[in-house]
Design goal:
Length: about 140
């Protein structure tokens, strides 16, 4: 079987302690790797306000996993998400080549911005050219 690239967005109940949230995060990570998946990136957004209450919760802990795995792995993960009461919502997407290229482009743009911000601003010297015609005239 060939491996596909997936992205799973998971919203964990933010009412949990930080330790409990980190154990949920590592449990999902272990589930991916134990099913022959390879994690490419984990994007941790932290606690955010939800657009609408979910199970009487107004705040959720957002985390995104990008990984390579077989389609059976994604199905097992979704089953695990569905059975876990602490996971408020989840969404798993299969990323195609266009999506992967877009993500790479965004990463390189973000890296370029960071590089530009690190460069110290050097004072620039203005060169003034006073030709014979401009001397003595009021502007």
């Amino acid at each position: 079987m060939s491996k596909n690239v997936y992205e799973s967005a998971v919203i964990i109940n933010a009412a949990l302690d930080d330790e409990q949230i980190q154990s949920q995060v590592s449990r999902i990570k272990d589930a991916i790797t134990s099913n022959n998946g390879v994690i490419n990136e984990i994007e941790d957004w932290g606690r955010k306000r939800l657009a609408y209450p979910i199970n009487k919760s107004k705040i959720g802990y957002y985390i995104f996993y990008r990984y390579e795995a077989q389609n059976t792995t994604a199905a097992k993960l979704e089953r695990m998400f569905n059975l876990d009461e602490q996971i408020l919502r989840y969404l798993t997407l299969k990323l195609d080549n266009n999506a992967l290229e877009y993500l790479e482009q965004k990463k390189s743009e973000a890296a370029n911005k960071v590089e530009e911000n690190k460069k110290p601003d050097l004072p620039t010297e203005k060169q003034v050219d006073l030709s014979d015609d401009d001397k003595g005239q009021d502007i």
